[in-house]
Amino acid sequence: MNHGVDKERPKSRRVTAQAVADAVGVSRSAVSRAFTEGAYLDNAKRRAILQMAARMGYQPNALAAGLQGGRSHLVAIFVGNMRSAYDSMFVSQLVRELNGIDKWPVLIDGGGKRAATAIDEIMRYPLDALILRGGSMSADIVTHCARFGIPMISSGRPVDASGVDNVCCRNALGSRLITERLIASGRKRFGLIAGPKDFHSAEGRREGVLDALGEAGLSLRCEAFSDYTVDSGHQIALEMLASNVIDALVCSNDASAIGALAAARELGRAVPGELAIVGFDDIDMAKWPMFDLTTVRNPIDASVREIIALLERRLADPTKDDETAYVDPSVVERGTH
Q1: What would the pLDDT profile of 210-220 be if each residue is shown by its tens digit?
Q2: Before 272, cis peptide (omega within 30)?
Q3: Of 37, 128, 201, 205, which has the fewest CB atoms closer than 10 Å, so is most exposed?
């Protein structure tokens, strides 16, 4: 019977290398050598150590190895905006590919005040590398990360700093191509729902639209800046369509385009007959029959391949020249243009 006094439970403790050494009757350094590829150790002794370690549940401390100059296999990813369906898809695939080369990601929210604190905290760990979803982050966070002197890959925002490699979509090209497609189909009165002003991706996408319009002797009838969400695209489009006569609405990402489609339906604007609406990224939702969104594909497969290749080259040769890889977007024609 319990008379109101709880017995103190023994605290769980990580099994140490010294405990394995004591159980086998060898030195602690022998245990370390048993887990170090290429280190000299008698085969029978190595087998005995590994068997005892498995029985006791011992694993070497990767963080300690990293602090001693080895590889921790930890890769921090500043994920950008995880509310974004595109960033979520991107990071999910990136995590799978990193696991495939025995790297273990630590995910950090890349936006807001918490990001600044997280940067300093995560840098206390012996990271093998740092990957930034820089196209969906403010420039000051990206620049701050580049100062730490560890291998870094910026995805979506070019960073000119030693030891930093870059992977970028040709955003301006993508938005230019889809705007030219709309112009060729006879659209003349354009509106633009741009992305956040401090996002590199939004800057390039806006530039491509303006360039295509300028070359055709056209200009924007209206423009507003979104936060790349469905809600902001919906609200902006409601106001824009109520007060402007446009026949084409270019949205800087698919989420804002999906919000704009909902607004057009609420206002009774026929898409694509009366109004073309296009997006950018080609998230999974874009091809759902209820949206059937014409958009620009920002290829995740190609970007992740480039990130992994750059990471492996950088880890093999930390002093190699910095590289920037570009991926090409393409127009995906569906039913909204």
Answers
A1: 999 999 999 99
A2: yes
A3: 37
Q: In angstroms, rounded to a whole number, what is the distance separating the alpha carbons of residues 228 and 82?
A: 11
Strand order in the sheet with 152-155: 104-108, 74-78, 129-132, 152-155, 164-169, 324-327
Q: Are 127 and 150 in contact (CB under 8 A)?
A: yes
- Choose among 247, 206, 242: nearest CA to 223: 206
- Give kind and range of the element (H or E) at residue 304: helix 300-316
Q: Provide the CB-side half-sphere exposure for 22 (13 A, CA).
A: 6
> What is the number of helices (H) and of strands (E) in the chain?
12, 12
Identify the burial level of 220 via C-beta atoms within 10 angstroms of its C-beta, where 0-12 means exposed, 13-18 middle and 19 or more buried: middle
**Of residues 98, 40, 104, the one with CA closest to residue 72:** 104
Contacts (Cβ under 8 Å, ≥6 apart) of 135: 80, 155, 156, 157, 168, 169, 171, 199, 200, 201
Crossing angle of helices 171-184 and 200-215, rounded to 10°: 30
What lies within 8 Å, CB to CB, of 188 at 6+ separation is: 218, 247, 248
C-alpha span between 82 and 109 (Å, rounded): 7
pTM value is 0.77
Q: How confident is the model at residue 60 (pLDDT cuts 50, 70, 90)?
A: confident
The continuous run of DSSP H or E covering 212 comes out as: helix 200-215
* 276-278, strands of its sheet edge to edge: 220-225, 190-194, 248-251, 276-278
d(CA 206, CA 188): 17
pLDDT in tens, 95-132: 999 999 989 898 887 555 666 677 767 777 778 888 98
